[in-house]
Amino acid sequence: MQSFQPRLLKLLGRVHDAEEAKKALNVVKQAGFDNFNFDLIYANPGQTLAELANDLDTALEFQPPHLSAYNLTFEEGTPFHHEYRSGKMANLSEDEEIAMAELIESKLSAAGLKRYEISNYARPWFHSRHNVNYWRAGDYLGLGAGAHSYKRNPDGVTGKRWSDEKNPGRYMAQVAESNHAVIDREEIDFQKAAGEFMFLARFGKLPEDFYPCIKIWTEGGFLEAHSGHLKLTAKGLMLANSIFVEFM
After folding, report:
1. What residue spans define the domains of the chain?
2. Do 58 and 4 meet the contact criterion of CB atoms below 8 Å apart?
């Protein structure tokens, strides 16, 4: 969905309009699906807090069991990134982005949607098992152009990751020739697995043994310990990417 605001949909280059978005959700509801998800994108250039509030209120009218709210990022190589670098497009200020993130958390939690990942909210028992599988370092198989896959080794810690050709035409040609289109393979060793998944109890050491920065983040109020687990505080969520980098 991304948004229910015509102006923002046009900005994002969406081919659907707000009414089509609502119609699609009505079709899902009327068909009797009790489990569905849709995405919203916030912190769009020029977006106001009032527009975001309207998007959230409209979204909640459909009582979604799961909702994703992604902060717009300017990915390198995209038209948005080009316009951003050329000065034709500006992102919101940090204060504006924080205010939007806080509004999302407030409205969705009040509606019974619990945050279980940085950008994902769900009602009880409706969290994405697919998403959670990534965090638990579970196996997954991706099929198609640009797909990624992962397979754990018998030790349950290390593993192998591979990815397929992104270009659909080259993907099809390579499959026809070789029966696969794998273009990149990566061995995940002990240290890399620790950095990626941070399930350090699996590695027989205390978290601080691997990452002394934990003490700094905890003392700064960005991380807190609960029943043997580390979690981001509300303050830490705002700097999640900066914190994650320290573990990689």
Report:
1. 6-128, 136-194, 206-245
2. yes
Q: Which residue has the tokens 């994405």?
A: 128
Which residues are within 8 A (CB) of 81 and not within 5 positions of it... i.e. 6 or more apart?
74, 75
**CATH topology for 6-128?**
Transcription Regulator spoIIAA (3.30.750)
Its pTM stands at 0.73
10 Å CB burial of residue 40 (0-12, 13-18, 19+) is buried
Strands (E), 36-78: 37-42, 66-71
- pLDDT tens sequence for the chain (248 residues): 999 999 999 988 899 999 999 999 999 999 999 999 999 999 999 999 999 999 999 999 999 999 999 998 877 777 777 887 887 777 888 889 889 999 999 999 999 999 998 899 999 999 999 888 887 889 999 999 999 999 999 988 889 999 999 999 999 999 999 999 999 999 988 777 766 655 445 555 566 666 778 888 888 888 887 777 778 887 777 777 777 777 66
